[in-house]
Specification:
The protein has 212 residues and is mainly α. It is built from 9 helices and 3 strands; from the N terminus they run βαβααβαααααα. It has a 3-stranded parallel sheet. Strand 1, helix 1 and strand 2 form a beta-alpha-beta unit. The longest helix has 16 residues. The radius of gyration is 20 Å and the shape is globular. The N and C termini lie far apart (54 Å). 26% of the residues are buried.
Length: 212
């Protein structure tokens, strides 16, 4: 099989998922930019998750709140290694809002951008339930996706995205996802958790809230 190089094809840019809630590609974006290639982010508002109104900016910075979608775009555009952020727009109002944010001269400085990222991680660490998503607790003997359920609670409790969290649980249940109601209370998950979380206790509470 011939390679792209043999065919004379050269990579000029990279498109990947990137937003305030999902920064897993941040190091890759930096690497690609350092190689002189274009970097483009898709999903800057997290598939609509960051379009919902919350006090996330005030929670992160202690300053007056701004629209969450504005925070989301400014964070992406504040990354010095990112060239472009793509956004799906369904009507003129969305276009106008995006143009306004992108044209705003008060973009985040490199320092502000860095501080936002750090603050985002810190509020997760100091939440009442800090699951790192390592999945060491898996597999559960009865099939409960513990990290997935705790991730939903992070959206609910830490980021204030309550409707989104409940919709995530609804979709999870529709796919026959197991919850605390199926738990056999064997405690195997707690023995394997590096964070020493009281998983069964937290799981019961989270499921009560999100399965409401």
């Amino acid at each position: 099989m011939d390679t792209s190089e043999e065919r004379g094809v050269k990579m000029e840019s990279m498109l990947c998922q990137y937003n305030l809630l999902d920064r897993s590609n941040e190091e890759m974006i930096k690497y690609v930019n350092e190689k002189g290639l274009g970097t483009v982010a898709m999903g800057p508002v997290g598939g609509g998750r960051l379009a919902a109104p919350t006090d996330l900016y005030a929670k992160l910075t202690g300053k007056a709140s701004i629209a969450t979608y504005e925070l989301a775009f400014k964070f992406c555009l504040g990354n010095p290694n990112l060239n472009c952020a793509l956004s799906g727009m369904q009507n003129l109002d969305m276009v106008q809002k995006n143009v306004k944010v992108a044209s705003d001269d008060t973009a985040f400085s490199a320092q502000e951008w860095e501080q936002l990222g750090v603050a985002m991680e810190e509020i997760k660490k100091f939440s009442e339930l800090y699951c790192t998503g390592c999945k060491y607790c898996q597999p559960c003997p009865v099939g409960i996706d513990i990290p997935r359920i705790f991730e939903m609670y992070t959206y609910y409790n830490v980021y204030g995205l309550k409707d989104h969290a409940r919709n995530m649980m609804k979709n999870y249940l529709e796919k026959e996802g197991k919850t605390f109601a199926d738990c056999k209370k064997c405690g195997i998950c707690e023995k394997k958790c590096p964070q020493h979380l009281a998983i069964r206790e937290h799981l019961e509470k989270v499921c009560e809230i999100l399965c409401d």
